[in-house]
Amino acid sequence: ARTPALVVPTGTDMTGICFRDQLCLNSYPLDRNMVFDYFALSSFYDWTCNNEQLRMRSTPT
After folding, report:
1. CB 38 within 8 Å of CB 24
2. Are 44 and 51 in contact (CB under 8 A)?
3. Using alpha carbons only, what angle is made at residue 8 by residues 10 and 14, rounded to the nearest 5 degrees?
4. How far apart are CA 17 and CA 21, in angstroms?
5. 40 burial type by CB count under 10 A (0-12 exposed, 13-18 middle, 19+ buried)
6. Could you state, in order of their start, the residue ranges of all structural domains in the chain?
7. Closest Cα to residue 35, out of 15, 13, 58?
8. Model confidence pLDDT, tens digit, residues 16-53
């Protein structure tokens, strides 16, 4: 399931907010093959970004 995008008012300081999914990190090594999938779990992830387009093209159907 997709995580909804984080919605915050414009100008909000988000520098103190971080994303960490410990369950995922305990289950899968974070390496170059997993990094996009891991970041896609974050509410910061933009499902319309170029990274998502590339990720979808490289995912076998």
Report:
1. yes
2. no
3. 85
4. 13
5. middle
6. 22-58
7. 58
8. 889 999 999 999 989 998 888 898 898 888 888 998 88
Structure tokens at 6: 């984080």
Place of tokens 């974050």: 42
Which long-range contacts link 39-42 to residues 24+ away (Cβ below 8 Å)? Answer: 40/3, 41/3, 42/3
- Six-digit token string for 55: 């990720």
C-alpha distances in angstroms, 48 versus 25, 53, 54?
25, 7, 11
Structural tokens at position 39: 């970041």
Residue 3 has pLDDT above 70, yes or no: no
Dihedral of alpha carbons 58, 32, 22, 51, sign: negative
